[in-house]
Amino acid sequence: MEERYPFAAVEEKWQQRWAAEGLYHVDDFDSRPKYYCLEMFPYPSGRLHMGHVRNYAIGDVVARFKTMQGYAVLHPMGWDAFGLPAENAAIKHGVHPRDWTWDNITFMRRQLKELGLSYDWRREIATCHPGYYRWTQWLFLQFYHRGLAYKKKAPVNWCPSCATVLANEQVVGGACERCKTPVTRRELEQWFLKITAYAERLLKDLEKLSGWPEKVKIMQANWIGRSEGALVHFPVVGREEKVSVFTTRPDTLYGVTYMVLAPEHPLVSKLTTPERREAVEAFVARARSMSELSRTAGEAEKEGLFTGAYCKNPLTGEEIPVYIANYVLMEYGTGAVMAVPAHDQRDFEFAKKYGLPIRVVIQPPGRELDAATMAAAYVDEGVMVNSGPFSGMPNRDGMRAVTAYLEEKGWGRHQVNYRLRDWLISRQRYWGAPIPIVYCDKCGIVPVREQDLPVLLPYAVAFKPTGESPLKDCPEFVHTACPQCGGPAKRETDTMDTFICSSWYYFRYTSPREESAPWERAKVDRWLPVDQYIGGVEHAILHLLYSRFFTKFLYDIGLVGCEEPFTNLLTQGMVLKDGAKMSKSKGNIVSPEEIMAKFGADTTRLFILFAAPPERDLEWSDQGVEGCARFLNRVWRLFNNLLPEIQGAPVPGANLVGVNRELQRLTHLTVKKVTEDVERFNFNTAVSAIMELVNGIYQFCDRVPPVDRNPGVLREAVEKLLIILAPFAPHLSEELWARLGYTESVHRQSWPTYRPDLLLQDQVEIAVQINGRVRGRIVVPAAATAAEIETVALEEPRIRQWLTGKTVAKVVTVPGKLINVVVR
Length: 824
Ligand SMILES: [Zn+2]
Ligand SMILES: [Zn+2]
What we know:
Blueprint: H1 7-21, E1 34-39, H2 50-68, E2 72-74, E3 78-79, H3 84-93, H4 97-114, E4 125-126, H5 130-145, E5 149-159, E6 164-166, E7 171-172, E8 175-176, E9 184-193, H6 199-204, H7 214-224, E10 226-235, E11 242-247, E12 258-261, H8 267-271, H9 277-289, H10 292-296, E13 304-312, E14 319-325, E15 336-339, H11 345-354, E16 362-363, E17 383-384, H12 395-409, E18 412-418, E19 423-424, E20 426-427, E21 437-440, E22 444-447, H13 475-478, E23 479-481, E24 488-491, E25 495-496, H14 498-501, H15 505-508, H16 521-527, E26 530-536, H17 542-556, E27 566-572, E28 575-577, E29 580-581, H18 592-599, H19 601-610, E30 618-619, H20 622-646, H21 658-679, H22 683-703, H23 711-725, H24 730-739, H25 756-759, E31 763-770, E32 773-781, H26 786-795, H27 797-803, E33 808-814, E34 818-823
Parallel strand pairs: 1-2, 1-26, 3-4, 12-14, 26-27, 28-30, 31-34
Antiparallel strand pairs: 5-6, 5-9, 7-8, 9-19, 10-11, 10-18, 12-15, 13-14, 16-17, 20-25, 21-22, 21-24, 23-24, 28-29, 31-32, 33-34
């Protein structure tokens, strides 16, 4: 008999057999209730890393557990395959992005299979496959036809190193998220998706997502950034124009002492007085070259310049100076800010710097602010002062009252604003889905006809980091016929942000090879929404928000039946080594390849699940991995030792006593605990419970001689052990299950149930001492009294023989533990 678990041979054998049998295939319409378990699909970067392994090991336990509980589980896998790294590899190493990507997919698919994950590989998708991106393009046209995809010239974040436009979300601390180069600004004609049209619903429906972590919902709400306030119009002195301003603090309007415009504000060139023009133009040029984040970051220097113009506070009639400043952005609000230095800290600092007046209009309770001596703005609640008819009013009430007054006078109105911007989707890149639009001199912007999709990416292009899409230099791609008039036309050469590809992939898994539509409606209705989505918290904002937006849009146009795509969300923590995230630069990477080669897939998975609860960060531990390997070997040896004894043993009854009863109880207790833990995703404690059961079986075998063992109880313990271990260590469990003589996979077994009556420790074994020496054992009800125990002990035949001819002097009973009979 093999002393050590030969994991390599066992894993390979079962992976082949599972694939041949289609064990993890799920049909779309079987009679079981459905469960859609989805892990975020990977970018095919080359090799799996431990973060991937963790993500998929968690998903695999959920999928297997739900299958054993009787659900038809959809558990698919695919590739988020467009994107920048492929193109960078092309520039750096001269490999074509398509070849690079497909080679990586081939390698990583093999790694996933070696992990023994229960995917239905028939449903595999890759977003770079024309059969997929055809529908990405088709979905773009659905947005376009409904006015939700549009083109406009816009200042964009530009990474000079990657030579591409970045979405705001891809700019971190003023630098490119990918290469850390400081981001600059450029004006380009860009395609946008109108996600702002869904801002209110995206915010409101967060309430429906009770299965999402609070922190993710808060991050989304902040990103959407709803604020309520008033739109106020300030007439420009001596001109027709008005400066419109959105404020969340209409109660402070009487304290406005100056106005600030974004340098890009269209009024700037009109308002600026001749003597200020030169300085203003220089200031504007400087601000335009700075990135949005470097202009607005907290530590950035707030710089401003007087335009020479004034506008009038509608409430007071007072004339206030108009400034421009680098920290005001055209894309947020109206591109103009009314300044209330007494009650806004940024305005306060600006006023101090440029010697502008400060006027207190909100007084805090119990003390009096003096503008001349204030050290900081007062931003809290209080009573309105110096505010005309509103003086004396609590400022909360004042917000509504002033807004109503503005509306009555025609000076403004109530307004809701969002921080959320429209989604900039144009990328000046090759490796993405081409935007299906052509430009015709006669007809203008013309969408590609649906029957002409996909607009295929040409293979033969040159990769130069020029800042323009490589497709521009590809005449066969660019020149085409106008779908409307048939005349010569040019194709759009920008490709789509890859976040578009990943905003709908979970629908495609239901109909991966469908050619007449992005999906079959009945299949989407069968499987969606996703019951459990699992992935990294770094996707808490963008990917999840975009996916929710797509789903709502698709719901509105009647293509899907759900308004939210993901019912439950689990965001798993990172895998750390020596307290830091694994990374090349820190040199602390543990490669899954290496660990799997050394210990096998089951050990790798078991460690990842055992080392920490899924939401927490996981600290890599070589000893931990070795411990898991030892545990699986313990299971292997235990099983093989017991096999002759338990094979064919009958199912035990419920009337066992003593040690057999105790083992039976441990088995049922373990099933209960593991079931509850897995349901709550407490995989680490579930694994501990399984380990305790194994210890319990070992102790039973050590302590109880074969003649006293009930083989049925042992068999039940071992069988239930294999079934509850199966989601964690699928290969070992399958092998041992087969050795028990079963021909149907352990993964097709029902999740075991437990009998509540067997959980009670209703029988206890008690040692019987005669004059302090153990002479026998009795089994009594756990609740037995001292008198009852004494009666049973003294009548026990083996004890009685010790009492013959003696006198019982004294009996000491410790209920539940022992009884000592003192005889003379
Ligand atoms: Zn970059
Ligand atoms: Zn035309």
